[in-house]
Amino acid sequence: MPDLLLELFSEEIPARMQRRAAADLQSLVTNALVDRGFLYEGARAYATPRRLVLQVHGLPPHGKDVREERRGPRVGAPDAAIQGFLKSAGLSSIDEARIQKDLKKGEFYVAVIERPGRPTPDVLAEILPEIIRAFPWPKSMRWGAASRETGSLRWVRPLQSIVCTFGPETEEPVVVPFEVDGITASDVTRGHRFMAPEPIRVRRFEDYVRALERARVVVDQDRRKDAILHDARDLAFALGLELVEDDALLEEVAGLVEWPVVLVGSFDESFLDIPPEVVRATIRANQKCFVVRDPVTGRLANRFILTSNLVAEDGGKVIVAGNERVVKARLSDAKFFWDTDRRIPLEKRLDKLSSIVFHEKLGTQADRVERIVSLAGAIAGRIGADRGLAERAARLAKADLVTEMVGEFPELQGLMGRYYAKLQGEAPEVAAALEDHYRPLGPSDRVPDAKVSVAVALADKIDTLAGFWSIEEKPTGSKDPYALRRAALGVIRILLQNELQLPLTPLLQSALAAQLGQADAAAFASDLLAFLADRLKVHLREQGARHDLIDAVFSLPGQDDILLIVRRVEALGRFLDTEDGGNLLVGYRRAANILRIEEARDGRTFSEAPDRALAERGEEAERHLAEALDKARTDARQAVAIQDYEGAMRVLSGLRGPVDSFFDKVTVNANDPELRENRLRLLNAIRAATRTVADFSRIEG
Predict the structure, then answer these.
(1) How far is C-alpha 613 from the chain's CA centre?
(2) How far apart are CA 506 and CA 512, in angstroms?
(3) What is the pLDDT of residues 32-46, one digit of tens each?
(4) SS3 for 51?
(5) CA-based torsion, 439, 442, 445, 446: positive or negative
(6) In angstroms, rounded to a whole number, what is the distance separating the alpha carbons of residues 526 and 71?
(7) Which partner from 119, 266, 424, 629 sits 20 to 30 angstroms from 567, CA to CA?
């Protein structure tokens, strides 16, 4: 089966765009082919700093022949209808149509349209220019004389050439004939920008990859990543050190080179007096280099690993020296920031927060600090943290935002606060909270566990949620510019992993009241709590919990304690897997089904409490059910009060016997309307009793 090779060669493709662009190219081309009936065996896209490459394997040489019967007007229809039919069907005369009989509608014309399958290169020549012109780059540009024309091609950087060949392995492939804004597709590419810039004629994908390897280009970005990582580890090991691995940096560096060459540089050992995170951030951000450490002590070494894009005649000495000069200059700046920042206590920096706007509708960072202090104090009292330390940590939490170091490296916020707090003699719990209150930063980030850190982290996230909720800046669809979903998940993970019971409604109302006033806070708090509930549902489903059990618990009113909600869901799941659980569910459904039918018939509910005196007038089975219900409700509530949810459900499962006996021996729809009413109230009492732990109507299976 023939293969397609497509290369789009440009001046540059930024590293951060390469993966997405390759995926987009693959999906756009393969989807367009499938839409036209061209199925394929496999496809894969690649990217380098200068080219997007696509291989589609196993395409047919031609599209399938099409035979279509198109029904036309009735025989004897007006001429205008006949002419319209001929035009749409591509017929020159009505004699080319055949007549078909319909027992109900009579005779009508039918056109048989047969179209041979189109050659695949012709279809490719039709779809590829459209895809290239409309390619979804996050940022693109026009260039040259054509840039003055509105409809001219836009590309991430100037598009220089297009390779497009199609053919089977056993034959010479053809060049797919098309052009885009004066760039004509061919079978000629170029190798490495410096080491092999001459034109290279290629045929199919395997030939293309081998030719570029000889021209010092590795097409597959994953191979480039593996080569960089392997060589960096080996070089570090040869020095008695180990590489500090960094997946994001590795991905970026692999997107900067077509022929990776790994080298080692060094810097003055005195710079190791700077915090290691600062050294790493400086070398990473400015030179895209990896740091190394002593495998025994874990301390950084005064070496770094860089990745060059060429094989230098001098073995890389000039390249290494150039990087060392830049690293020295940047580390000198970092040392200056470090020395300068340490002279000014965090407390004396707080006034500067008044000049930093957090959000135009939510005030300054200083305003926000006051809100976080208040919340952190309230939370501390409820989780057993030291209130004074929590408020002190909240007061200093944002002070490092106005330091020189965080101004240069914003990603070090919190961490530098911890360093500076420790240096100025703050309590260890306060210093730790300055870093940890931002956590967790993502689903894989650790959760703070020290109580002071937990109090400030929760306060920070609740203030963020309440603030943006109060100004109606909620997440919509896939858009979440203020990372409110992440903040909500942070609250959930902190509470669950620390096993903290903390009703959220009072905290949300307090946080919202700081923005809206007390009158409007309650309604907004209810809406924000629903948002947190939705995030908890997502989190629990990702952990493997059944969606119906989650809904069964969330349907109960007043659920605002994340830990207790989860414990109830887990207990419900375990209990329903037992025989008692099955009995409880069967008994509930039997009562609920009859009650639903009778409520629909009467157009009313039977929510009043059963009358024990009426039950005494009836059958023995309904007296026993009434007695069992009274005891079960009391015992279940007591079990729930001590968070023994499985115990509550075991109590309720004991109703199965009295319920079965009631249904076997008692006629619910008695002739006596008072008895019938009371018996339906008994059934409603069964339904209400189960709601002590969950809404069983939401449980499936």
Answers:
(1) 59
(2) 10
(3) 999 888 999 999 999
(4) strand
(5) positive
(6) 59
(7) 629
Buried b / exposed e along 84-106 (16+ C-beta atoms within 10 A)? ebbeebebeebeebeeeeeeeee
Alpha-carbon distance of 204 to 165, in angstroms, equals 7
Strand partners, 371: none
Per-residue HEC secondary structure of 269-284 comes to: HHHHHCCHHHHHHHHH
Q: At what angle do helices 317-342 and 415-423 cross, to 10 degrees?
A: 50
Q: What is the pLDDT of residue 555?
A: 83
Q: What is the dihedral of CA 254, 257, 262, 268, to 10 degrees?
A: -90
Give dist(CA 335, CA 349) in Å, integer. Answer: 20
Look over the chain and give the mean of its residue pLDDT values, rounded to a whole number.
Answer: 92
- What is the per-residue pLDDT for 264? 98
Both tokens of 664, joined, read: 């076997």
Of 429, 419, 436, residue with least CA distance to 386: 429
* Domains detected in the chain: 3-61+119-214 (no CATH), 66-115 (no CATH), 221-342 (no CATH), 360-401+411-544 (no CATH), 574-698 (1.10.730.10)
Threshold 0.90, pTM exceeds: no
**Confidence tier at 515 by pLDDT (50, 70, 90):** confident
pLDDT at 263: 98
| Distance of alpha carbon 233 from alpha carbon 251, whole angstroms | 16
- Position 301: which residue type? A
Question: Could you give the CA distance from residue 576 to residue 593 in angstroms, rounded to a whole number?
Answer: 19
Contact status, residue 115 vs residue 66, Cβ threshold 8 Å: yes
Q: Name residue, tokens 């309604």.
A: 523
Instruction: For residue 476, give the 3-state DSSP assignment.
Output: strand
Per-residue pLDDT tens digits for 398-434: 999 999 999 999 999 999 999 999 999 999 999 999 9
pLDDT band for 341, please (50, 70, 90 cuts): very high
